[in-house]
Amino acid sequence: MHLAYPAVLAVLLFCVGVYGVLARRNAILVLMSVELMLNAVNLNLVAFDVWLRDAFHAGQALTLFTIAIAAAEIGIGLAIVLAVYRNRGSSDIDRLRDTAETDAAEALPDEWTGDGEPLGEGAPGATEDPAAPAGKARKTEATA
User: Of 8, 23, 43, 137, most Cβ neighbours within 10 A?
Assistant: First the structure.
């Protein structure tokens, strides 16, 4: 058997996986695309193991490690996706970007601005209600 056939198939699988990671917005489809890329790597490992006639079958051993890593990745990835879906109601990746953003109100005390000047009573950055929540607490109240 020629080495070109499994190599071309692996390249096609890997390209479909890269397209799926870059173009999809659903987290489960992104995980499936990562699995396609890992399967392309496994196909290359086994094909080169057969082509080189390795006595130790290192390609097949590495394939078993890759399958174990893929199983762990899917288990952890699905757990994260399910937890996010329960909290947010969607597994859309673009809607999850606000979880990584930090609010400037958390980093600074309420009475200070970015230039080190304290805020006065009527300053534009001052809160009207001193008991109003700031930072993530405000976001949590808005999403709840």
Answer: 43
Give me the mean pLDDT over the 9-25 stretch.
Answer: 96
Amino acid symbol at 54 = D
Distance CA 128, CA 122 (A): 8
CA dihedral 112, 118, 121, 124 (to 10 degrees): -60
DSSP string, 46-101: HHHHHHHT-SS-HHHHHHHHHHHHHHHHHHHHHHHHHHHHHHHS--BSGGGGGGT-
Predicted confidence at residue 105, as pLDDT, reads: 47
Query: pTM of the full predicted structure?
Result: 0.66
Rounded average pLDDT over 8-12: 98
CB contact set of 9 (below 8 Å; sequence gap of 6+): 43
Give just the sign of the alpha carbon dihedral 127, 130, 134, 137.
negative
